[in-house]
Amino acid sequence: MLYRALRVVVRPTALAIWRPEIIGTDHVPADGPVILASNHLSFADSLVIPLTSPRQVAFLAKDDYWTGTGLKGLVTRQFFTAIGSIPVDRDDTRAAQLSLDLALAHLREGGAFGIYPEGTRSRDGRLYRGRTGVAWLALTAGCPVVPVALTDTDKLQPVGATLPRRIRFRVEFGRPIDFTGRFDGVPAGRARRAVTDEIMAAIHAMSGQELADGYNERAPEQPTA
């Protein structure tokens, strides 16, 4: 119910304010399991994609969003629940596999799941090499992958900014890629690498970003006073 209310009220309001360029929504299957694999430029990306996608898309989110207290905690908890976010404990030593297991369960229920193969947002605007978790999901769930290219969302909410700016951004949904049967008999590691590289090539073809040589690493935590 709350998700529908957000779609009816928040979505048209947000689209009217920011007027994003949205391309290829017809490429997103109307139902059934699907992975939306996107480049990652800003914290706002996990809000931008659900707002512009024609169907509800779940992303993983740190479980801190569900443990806040007071009115702010209530609003945050309700919001992330409403947009379909899946809580995960990032401090768990098994966090990486747990995240994939939660995503797989969502896909097996017929949902749409959003993922950033780069692992974390790009701090220099380049497109980094994809990690193979997205391929493991696609091959294990047997579902298509829709590549997504975001442009200028880093200007929408730059690192360190607490509120989004009124910047026009672009979201492009590419044609779904179906890997069914294409890697039968191929060693698992090689298949996952090939699938991931194909997804990243599709994202790059739409985003036009400069390619980085290696993987993107999460920024170190800043010490607190």
From TrEMBL:
The keyword Transferase applies. One of its GO terms (molecular function) is acyltransferase activity. It comes from the Bacteria. The keyword Acyltransferase applies. Keywords: Acyltransferase, Transferase. Residues 34-153 form the Phospholipid/glycerol acyltransferase domain. PANTHER family: 1-ACYL-SN-GLYCEROL-3-PHOSPHATE ACYLTRANSFERASE. This is 1-acyl-sn-glycerol-3-phosphate acyltransferase. It comes from Ornithinimicrobium cryptoxanthini. The lineage of its organism: Bacteria, Bacillati, Actinomycetota, Actinomycetes, Micrococcales.
